[in-house]
Prior knowledge:
Chains A, B, C, D: This reaction introduces a second double bond into the aromatic ring system. 4 copies of one chain form a homotetramer. Chain A is an alpha+beta fold. Helix content of chain A is 26%, strand content 21%. Chain A has one domain (5-356): Chorismate synthase AroC (Chorismate synthase, AroC fold, 4-Layer Sandwich), CATH 3.60.150. The first copy, chain A, has 9 helices and 18 strands. Chains A and B meet through strand 1, helix 3, helix 7, strand 11 and helix 8 of A and strand 1, helix 3, helix 7, strand 11 and helix 8 of B.
Amino acid sequence: MSGNSIGRSFVLTSFGESHGPAIGGIVDGCPPGLPLSEADLQQDLDRRKPGQSRHTTQRRESDRVQILSGVFEGVTTGAPIGLLIQNEDQRSKDYAEIAAKFRPGHADYTYTMKYGRRDYRGGGRSSARETAIRVAAGGIAKRCLQTLAGVRVRGYLSRLGPIRTAAVGEPGFDWDQVERNPFFSPVAERVAEMEAYMDALRKSGDSIGAEVTVIAEGVPPGLGEPVFDRLDADIAHALMSINAVKGVEIGAGFDCVEQKGTEHRDAMTPEGFVGNNAGGVLGGISSGQPVVARLALKPTSSVRLPGRTVDLTGQATEVITKGRHDPCVGIRATPIAEAMLALVLADHLLRHRGQNADVRPPLSPLPASAP
Amino acid sequence: MSGNSIGRSFVLTSFGESHGPAIGGIVDGCPPGLPLSEADLQQDLDRRKPGQSRHTTQRRESDRVQILSGVFEGVTTGAPIGLLIQNEDQRSKDYAEIAAKFRPGHADYTYTMKYGRRDYRGGGRSSARETAIRVAAGGIAKRCLQTLAGVRVRGYLSRLGPIRTAAVGEPGFDWDQVERNPFFSPVAERVAEMEAYMDALRKSGDSIGAEVTVIAEGVPPGLGEPVFDRLDADIAHALMSINAVKGVEIGAGFDCVEQKGTEHRDAMTPEGFVGNNAGGVLGGISSGQPVVARLALKPTSSVRLPGRTVDLTGQATEVITKGRHDPCVGIRATPIAEAMLALVLADHLLRHRGQNADVRPPLSPLPASAP
Amino acid sequence: MSGNSIGRSFVLTSFGESHGPAIGGIVDGCPPGLPLSEADLQQDLDRRKPGQSRHTTQRRESDRVQILSGVFEGVTTGAPIGLLIQNEDQRSKDYAEIAAKFRPGHADYTYTMKYGRRDYRGGGRSSARETAIRVAAGGIAKRCLQTLAGVRVRGYLSRLGPIRTAAVGEPGFDWDQVERNPFFSPVAERVAEMEAYMDALRKSGDSIGAEVTVIAEGVPPGLGEPVFDRLDADIAHALMSINAVKGVEIGAGFDCVEQKGTEHRDAMTPEGFVGNNAGGVLGGISSGQPVVARLALKPTSSVRLPGRTVDLTGQATEVITKGRHDPCVGIRATPIAEAMLALVLADHLLRHRGQNADVRPPLSPLPASAP
Amino acid sequence: MSGNSIGRSFVLTSFGESHGPAIGGIVDGCPPGLPLSEADLQQDLDRRKPGQSRHTTQRRESDRVQILSGVFEGVTTGAPIGLLIQNEDQRSKDYAEIAAKFRPGHADYTYTMKYGRRDYRGGGRSSARETAIRVAAGGIAKRCLQTLAGVRVRGYLSRLGPIRTAAVGEPGFDWDQVERNPFFSPVAERVAEMEAYMDALRKSGDSIGAEVTVIAEGVPPGLGEPVFDRLDADIAHALMSINAVKGVEIGAGFDCVEQKGTEHRDAMTPEGFVGNNAGGVLGGISSGQPVVARLALKPTSSVRLPGRTVDLTGQATEVITKGRHDPCVGIRATPIAEAMLALVLADHLLRHRGQNADVRPPLSPLPASAP
């Protein structure tokens, strides 16, 4: 059943396969009156784009996004925004040989069991290619959050396999560094280490996991709809919906298991909260503190080293994934995670205050007649 | 906006405050033909019920659930199932003194900022009391899963603060032990240790976090609706929607950050998968492997030790939470987590195969006439 | 699959069968700060209540509604509102003999074919008994509309079989008359005629159809979400979801088929619209004109005269409906139609402006810390 | 808030303005394994296409639809289907002069009041241009209904202003005629009459309303989800969501107001139903009889004759609609109405039986390991 939409008031619906003619999406519910251009969205798309360094897949995509509707004279109209990105560099032949095999750790087997068939070219719908549209839509959500509520969403790579960078406020942490290296590392000192680690990893033909942290500052109190559509629950849903994610934390996350109540609860003073173990969410509703979430990304299963698997007939066989892949999908995940957090926050901002709260009609309503 | 429903095909909508006359819910989408009685649901409600041991809140609730509709002659009809549980032991006076203060780490502040007011009696809607209906509805979901697909959902306490029990297959792990102690510990040896820990904790007036693991066995391959309504994403949403949860993991969870691809990907053989780092989900779709999820529960902020906070006017003050509370909310969380996992699986089972796949009408359709 | 909820921002989910212990519902999304009591809802319930005159079913139900949650100290809190009405006067034996037969024109056959079984007592879920909860929830919607936007929803019986009353503004039309007769006729002169017609009809053992008109005044311009969730489309959905409704019109309705464009389009002047062929909706969005809708209700198929049908085995047989029924279900339909129109308008009002647009928190947000 | 999606299991989300670069949509939930090509959809698009005769707008659009995803090797995969239609013949200048005026009977005023601005080029989002995507998506729904359940959806023009054609079974009615004239008239004799009527109308510069009838044959019993998502209620919603529709009838429709119960209820015999006053729906669920619906379409307000209105500043003015318009929008409405009925039926078919009921995986599931 249809599972390609996310959000309730600010809704993204997406389509597209890795090796089809194009991928695209529709953002429905964006408030009117928002200045918006394709360039606004290109920025984040370029941050996600493959082939930016030797540490990511060498597939080349210009990832140029087109806005097909919902914007008139440079401003959103309240109508749905159609987004389109052409696929360019498709080497389908790379995948011919695995058409009849299930790559272990991939969606090949589950898609086939669910749908009875699959588009095997580059993973088809299950490819991370799909996340480009999330990033484009996330760009609209970011604009929306910034304009309507002054919310800022950003993220960084907190762990690359065994290499840990730093948390906000820790020594060496610098937001400005994040955009200055291909890893989104907030710690300059770690970059060389990561380069070396990745070079060795690539030689070995293996892959590695990573952890990304995303933070939203300026979130007003009151966002989130208990008891099920809590802000933290929807964030968990959105982040876990990203390819390769196996875990999500809010605030203290799993550390809270060993915390005492007196230690975990963030005291409140007229000067504000003391600490942020809550990660900006209490009872499923934003507290006004920064919203802090972490996600764990598994190592890609597409590696050059042979793996045991079965074929379409259930017979034992081996598979080696050629094609072009990220040895660490986490490296490009920061803009994607930011986009998902922005989509959830924009949705809840609009659920809370309404899409048209700021609309000023040009004239006062005409008088009504009798029925 | 309305956030009190969960699910798409098998939907729970709930209502009720901690100290109102009753709590209740509606399960809409339960397939017809399912044998169902109140006793079937009471079982899990009793497992969650407070006052079962000295380690949980002493509030006394019989938690008798009534089925008000949707069942005729002992069998579900396909009509919505109305559930009702009367509230009995309400000591509202316990809360009078905190009516004008925000308990730190609680939803008092966020509810007040969002709605402009709050039902301060026992946390009102934000009280864990609400989870009783989740457990009742989860019981229907479990029956549904068992009957339609042979799926079994169960869970255990994997960590109580610093005390770790064991994972399935590890030495000392025994499913039969889980129901034989007040902690849902699968390891008999740990129980005494936990008793001692909790007794000391209670004396100190503080509280502690915990980790629960839930597992679904017999899940057929094919459940989950990419790219957003993935099975793992919906599980993350459902588990994170439980009070006090700050983190969710599927399969290897955060351990995958330091795993290599060759180590993480579960090889496939005609005899089945080798390992289950995926936790039973690949590409957002069930693989047929057991679905394994873990959740981190924060320590309750309701402790006898004073905490700094502000009052309704924003002035600094102190608060001591009297009332009756669980020093470790995680202890009673196992049946709740099972219920949420069951609700998600039942929803996806019905999304995948349809609510009425098994319906056999008593007669063949009558011939149609011309328009 | 679950079909017992209506609305997106202001959502009613209902449950209950004609002869079960109780019927009930949950209103989720009602804004906080609204004064609300059971008495507020009882008013419309009493208008719909059976046995008010000899012209409706003699089933006796006090239809006392209980509010179980969402209201604290006489004011809504923003939490879901649980509604419950006990069933009292159930004569199940009346239905024993038709358990194995399908009443023609009823849902007996379709429910059985869909679900494989049915609760045959009084139509079970398909009974008009279910509409009592719609009326209770509609009462909340009316309060919401009145308080937030000054919208007034009311209706009247425009046709009873061959007897036509009058439209607003036509000679003899008087809103005050509507509540002064058992038919909700706005024309005093028609009442005696209707009494005579119904008495003769009852003697004959047959039933008759009717047409109800509902009107909402004070609807602000801007409600409705094109292109699918148009205000008129959602009104058509809500009114057609009422038992026995076979047709819905907005404004000029089917008369527009023979109208010219110059005749149909309502001219606009600084003094307001000239005419209301649009029925208050243009392009799926409210224009500020009164919203006018009409619905056609079929004659109940439950009549004392024998009808040809088949039994559970598909064999030909005859059926005579005993039990207690309305010879004209349209007579009691006015409060139900008002409720459905109010539910749609409240939903769209909140979709447009947000649930919490009026919320004033008691204190300004606490300052935020660093992440 | 987002209102550009329709359906629950088979969902169409659309975007696009009359004079933007393109219009498009996403069909999410189409079952896998369905043969599908662009040619399959082009057929209905050509039936709706403008400029087919002198009786419709002379705007020229090739309306070529592209399928961008969800189809692999000529067969649907279960992934969302992206649809795109380029806009070609845009004469925006036609609209410059009405940018500052509200055309009476149009959505100009309501869009402006709702969103604070509007894309005035050809009505922007409120233009009937949007219906082209409904027709394309409806083509997928038709294929789905035909393949999965043998359902056939078709329609005809039952009234053109004062000219009535005929109902199925009436003298002169012939399905084969429908596609042989530009009016979709099922009665050959009426065509000349209509030609003459339209020619005179065009000369006069005015427009006229129409009535369309749509019928679905072969609908299995059991479709529809009471009590709110009834099949007839969802049909009413879908048909009323079409531009210019002011009324919807199912079966006997408004005629039921004057019918007796013994007359309206369709008797049942082992040989089938006697009559179809129900229009194929009983209690909101399909009965297996043909589903019959009628819709009333208002005359377009875009006429060459001057109309009184106000401008953006609220001042009185006059407007004459130039541009190219259909003097009777009902003429091209038949394929659109068919599409909407097909979308609703496909959605309910999948809600009832599940999207993947027919899926046959190529291999049996691999054995599961321990958790």
